[in-house]
Specification:
about 450 residues; mainly alpha; two-stranded antiparallel sheet; 10 strands; globular
C-alpha cells in the first residue's frame, strides 16, 4: 500500500512505492537488473568478503568475536556496493572510510538512513537539518545529504563511463532506462519515458533497504544457530565437501551454487523462524474485495482497507509445519530419493513468504540466496563455529546461551534484531585444529 510505504520515497519514487502503470514501468525496467551476471558477481564477491572476515575471526583465539552482526553487515554492504555500483572494497576498508568531499562515510550515512526509516514518515527530510531540530535529527539530515551525494556521484560516473559492459545494478538501470526512452523517441513503443535519475536513486536506496540489513541479519542468525546446533553444521559441511571436494574457494557459480541445497535449506529455515520482515503491509484495491476463508466463509474488504500479513504466524503454523513448527530444523526442507539425491519439499502457496508473494515478490530474492550460500559455504568449508564458554562451563551451557540470545529478538526500526548479540562471542576454528575448549 503506497500510503504505508511513503517513507521509502526518501530519495525518489521506487518499485515499492508506486502503483498501476507506474509500477509496471518500474518493474519492467528494474527486474532485468537482477540477472545471472549479477548473481555470478554476488557469488564471487560474497566468497571474497567471507574469506577475509573468517580470517579475522579465526585470529581472535579463545576469546572469539562479538562482532558477528556488525561484520556480516559489512560483508552484505560490500557485496551490495559492488553489485549496485561496480565498486569493490576490501573487507576491512572501503565504505567505512570517508570519501573526499564528504563528511560521513558511505556506510555511516546509509546506516543512519536505514535505522531511522520510520522517522521519514513523520518528518519530511527537508526539515531535518533546520537549526531548531534536535541534534540527532540534524545528524540524520546530514546523512540524507551525504548518501544522496554518494548516489549522485556514482550515477554521474556511470553516465560518463565508457565501460558499457560494466556489470552493476545501477548500470543495468541506466541502460534499461536510456534504451526505453530512446525507443519511445523513435516511436517504436508508446510506453512512458525510462526512469528519471531521482527514480534510479530511489530504487537503489530501496535495494539497500531490502537487501542489506535483511541478508546480513539472516547470515548472522544462521551462524549463531549453527554454533548452537553443531549437528546441522556438520550436515552442511558434509555437502560442501561432497560438492567442492578438497579444492579451496567456491569455484564456478553456475556449477556450485545449484548443488549446495543444504546451505539454502539453512537459509530457508532461518528465514522461517527469524525472518527480518515480520509483517507485510498490503491494501485492498479501490473497489471492495471478497476473500473466501478456509472455512468457506466470505469476508468482504471495503475499498482501500489496510491489511497486514502476519508472516511469523504463517511461518510457524503447526497445520503447515507440524508439531515442531517452533523448532529450528533445516533438514525439514529436503527429502532424499532412493539414490540419496536431495530435493526441496515444495511448500503450499502462501505458507512461506520471506520475500513476499505474488506480482510484488521481491526481485532480489535470487541475489539474497546466492549471497547467503556463498558466504556460508566459504565459512563452513574451512572453519567451524563454536560458542565461547567460561572456565568450568560445559559446552552445552554455551550453546544454550546462544539459543536464549537468538530468541531474545525484537523489531528494531522495521526488521527483527537480536537484542544482545554483542554480548555473546563466537569462536571460529580452522578445521583440523583443536579449539581448546571443553568437549561435551
Amino acid at each position: 500500500m503506497v500510503t504505508q510505504a511513503e517513507q521509502l520515497n526518501v530519495f525518489g519514487r521506487n518499485l515499492n512505492t508506486v502503483e498501476g502503470e507506474d509500477w509496471q514501468r518500474h518493474r519492467r525496467l528494474t527486474a532485468p537488473s537482477f540477472n545471472e551476471k549479477i548473481s555470478s558477481l554476488v557469488w564471487d564477491e560474497g566468497g571474497r568478503q567471507a574469506r577475509d572476515m573468517a580470517l579475522l575471526w579465526s585470529q581472535q583465539g579463545q576469546t572469539g568475536t562479538k562482532e558477528t552482526v556488525a561484520d556480516t553487515a559489512t560483508v552484505a554492504l560490500h557485496v551490495l556496493t559492488n553489485a549496485a555500483f561496480g565498486v569493490a572494497y576490501p573487507f576491512n576498508q572501503g565504505v567505512r572510510k570517508v570519501a573526499p568531499g564528504h563528511q560521513m562515510s558511505y556506510r555511516d550515512s546509509l546506516s543512519l538512513c536505514l535505522t531511522n526509516i520510520i522517522t521519514f514518515a513523520i518528518i519530511p527530510k527537508r526539515y531535518l537539518s533546520r537549526s531548531f531540530m534536535p541534534r540527532k535529527l540534524q545528524k540524520l539530515g546530514q546523512a540524507v545529504r551525504e548518501f544522496q551525494q554518494y548516489m549522485d556521484e556514482m550515477l554521474a560516473s556511470e553516465r560518463t563511463s565508457t565501460k558499457f559492459e560494466r556489470t552493476s545494478l545501477m548500470s543495468a538501470l541506466v541502460r534499461a532506462s536510456d534504451e526505453d526512452a530512446q525507443s519511445r523517441e523513435r516511436g517504436q513503443q508508446e510506453s512512458k519515458l525510462g526512469l528519471t535519475d531521482e527514480e534510479i536513486s530511489g530504487n537503489i536506496f530501496a535495494y539497500n533497504l531490502a537487501g542489506h540489513e535483511t541478508t546480513a541479519n539472516t547470515v548472522a542468525y544462521a551462524l549463531f544457530l549453527l554454533a548452537a546446533y553443531p549437528q546441522y553444521q556438520d550436515w552442511v559441511r558434509e555437502e560442501i565437501k561432497q560438492v567442492r571436494g578438497d579444492e579451496p574457494g567456491n569455484k564456478d557459480y553456475e556449477q556450485i551454487f545449484p548443488r549446495l541445497q543444504r546451505c539454502l535449506a539453512v537459509m530457508y529455515e532461518t528465514l522461517r523462524l527469524y525472518g527480518s520482515v515480520v509483517f507485510i503491509p498490503r491494501a485492498a484495491s479501490l473497489e471492495s474485495q471478497t476473500l473466501t476463508h478456509a472455512n468457506g466463509k466470505d469476508i468482504v474488504l471495503p475499498p482501500s482497507t489496510a491489511v497486514n500479513i502476519n508472516v511469523q504466524a504463517l511461518h510457524t503454523d503447526p497445520a503447515t509445519w507440524g508439531a515442531d513448527s517452533l523448532e529450528w530444523r533445516p533438514t525439514r526442507w529436503l527429502v532424499s530419493d532412493k539414490d540419496k539425491n536431495q530435493t526441496f519439499i515444495p511448500t503450499a502457496p502462501g505458507t512461506f513468504i520471506p520475500w513476499a508473494d505474488g506480482p510484488r515478490v521481491c526481485p532480489g530474492q535470487k541475489f539474497a540466496q546466492v549471497e547467503f550460500v556463498s558466504v556460508l559455504a566459504t565459512l563452513l568449508g574451512r572453519y567451524r563455529a563454536e560458542p565461547v564458554v567460561g572456565k568450568g562451563e560445559d559446552v552445552k551451557v554455551g550453546r544454550d546461551r546462544i539459543k536464549r540470545m537468538v530468541d531474545d529478538s525484537a523489531i528494531s526500526a522495521i526488521t527483527l534484531q537480536m537484542l544482545e548479540s554483542g554480548k555473546v562471542p563466537l569462536r571460529w576454528v580452522e578445521m583440523g585444529q583443536d579449539s581448546g575448549q571443553p568437549v561435551e
